[in-house]
Amino acid sequence: MSARESGLGGNAQQKLLAFASLIVLVIGFSLASPNFFQVSNIMAILQATSVNGVLAVGVTLIIITGGIDLSIGTLMTFCAVMTGVVLTWLGMPLPLGVLTAVGTGALCGFVSGGLVARMKIPPFIATLGMMLVLKGLSLIVTGTKPIYFNDTPGFTTIAQGSLIGQIIPLPVPNGVLVLFIVAGVAAWILGRTVLGRYTFALGSNEEAVRLSGVNTEFWKIAIYTLAGAICGIAGLLIASRLNSAQPALGLGYELEAIAAVVIGGTSLSGGRGTILGTLIGALIMSVLTNGLRVLSVAPEWQTVVTGAIIIVAVYADQMRRRGRS
Amino acid sequence: MFTRRTLLGAVAALSLMTGATGAVAQDKLYVPLISKGFQHQFWQAVKVGADKAGAELGVEVTFEGPDNESQVDKQIDMLAAALAKKPAAIGFAALDSQAAIPLLKQAQEANIPVIAFDSGVDSDIPLATASTDNLAAAALAADKMAELIGGEGKVAVVAHDQTSRTGVDRRDGFVNRIKESHPNIEVVTIEYGGGDHLKSTEITKAILTANPDIKGIFGTNEGSAIGVVNGVKESGAKVVVVGYDSGKAQKDAIREGVMAGAITQNPVGIGYETVKAAVAAAKGETVEKNIDTGFYWYDKTNIDNPEISAVLYD
């Protein structure tokens, strides 16, 4: 197996087909309900994808190294909370808030990376610990009450406004624009930079990389830091969308992001994965959730169907791989 | 391989879903309720009431809410999907009113009436709010307390908090009724335990130590009431305990006789009245701004009555 299936390129056939199944879902829901394929509903789906999508892009990087990050959900919340502290409590200007979110994310990612790479704590345990630490810190900092951004005009436009809507008559929310930019940059890093090359190499055979004289600790920490910064962007998006930093939110979001990554064909054992696949995975998740709701399927069954789709998607992907080798 | 299987799966799932929903008549009014929760027994009881009203009035009702009360964004997504279905009216219990405002405005622009329920929505967009009249309910608790302690003596309140609407209303409803109608009873102290069992237990013990002659204590929600029960048990005092809401611990305390009785809200009524008001609003009828969904006093004698046990939860 090639360790260098790159970002947006790679196995074109697979992605075309994954994309096709997304299209089939969309067509199916559109036929089932006239209310599904409406501009406002499609925008609602994209808006719902933005936060999970950004988180999924971040954790894709880590999963390709053969690691996992369970702290992304609560890290997102912690970044949102710190942005609230800087903007609302300290009254700083908006750009500083953005910087705080990304900076907090990068710093926490750096800590997670250090725990995994330097202290050799298994990623599952290290980030499980971080998940709880960050959840607690968010509650402590805020005193369990949400922080609102009413004093920062323009903050809600980060996710809710529509720059694209001013150019063409399609009100694509800015949050979606941010998701595509983040995904584009991540795909470029994976496909075109040294960091990207080592990300795949670490996931394929870390020992071989180390023995060939590469400072694996450094590169691993760099990847966790980058993924943390991306979680910071997700924090910014969710805070902007809710016009508030909700300190109790975040637990469970890591699993949704990981599900999107897995549906997108990234291997949990590392060494293989694409950002485009993750994007499609995230879209499949939110199209499903929204479509089932629009069809008024009972919430209990929504959960069952979503779970079943994850299993089917991953099984199908494995069958395809087995057939090829 | 990948596609064929995925496609098959997707098509199968879709046909299953369309089959399930195909039976719904298109000309029926549709009213979705977006709640603060779904799995909790309290919300299941609200759903029962909503479904009952839906069946009686011949409208299609759906009920959903996020897994827990922290998932503000999930609730917003549910509201967005509900709006996409072009409903006749929407019932909504906001987890965070401010976060929901853009979508509520969207509903307003599309002329979709919004009916708030339970704790309601902090905005002037909802045409009506179906909730418990906490002031009146706590006043009933005060009357029952007075009756149980013989109309005179000292009582105390362990409240769940001093900022939320329910916290303030339940405290004031109780204290004001005592002042107005029971002049021989004195509310010696009001303490706040945040609805936390342990904290409320410690508060209760402190109250009992400071006022050995106290006759009764009122706990204003499930956590506070259980805390009061624990505090009274631990210090071995003989006082009349009056609680609020239900839950297994509180029901057990009432059956054992440690708690004299409690106020229960009527979640079934909340669901029922919400749908009823939503349908009225959709038809252009005027609806009452504040709909009191009712409440009951329950104690050892009536805890197993069908009318009461229907609104209690574990």
TrEMBL record, chain A:
Membrane spanning residue stretches: 42-63, 96-117, 124-143, 176-200, 221-242, 301-317
Membrane topology: Multi-pass membrane protein
The species this protein was found in: Shinella pollutisoli
Keyword field contains Transcription: no
Top-level taxonomic group: Bacteria
Compartments where located: Cell membrane
Keywords, in A-Z order: Cell membrane, Membrane, Transmembrane, Transmembrane helix
Listed name of the protein: ABC transporter permease
Main location: membrane
UniProtKB/TrEMBL annotation, chain B:
Main location: other
Gene3D superfamilies linked: 3.40.50.2300
CDD domains: PBP1_ABC_sugar_binding-like
Domain (Periplasmic binding protein): residue spans on this chain: 33-285
Family: Belongs to the bacterial solute-binding protein 2 family.
Keyword Transmembrane tagged: no
Keywords: Signal
Residues making up the signal peptide according to the UniProt record: 1-25
Pfam family, one: Peripla_BP_4
Keyword Signal: yes
Entry superkingdom: Bacteria
Localisation: Cell envelope
Phylogenetic classification of the source organism: Bacteria, Pseudomonadati, Pseudomonadota, Alphaproteobacteria, Hyphomicrobiales
Protein name (database record): ABC transporter substrate-binding protein
Organism (species): Shinella pollutisoli
Record PANTHER family: D-ALLOSE-BINDING PERIPLASMIC PROTEIN-RELATED
Matching InterPro entries: Peripla_BP_I (IPR028082), SBP_2_dom (IPR025997), TAT_signal (IPR006311)
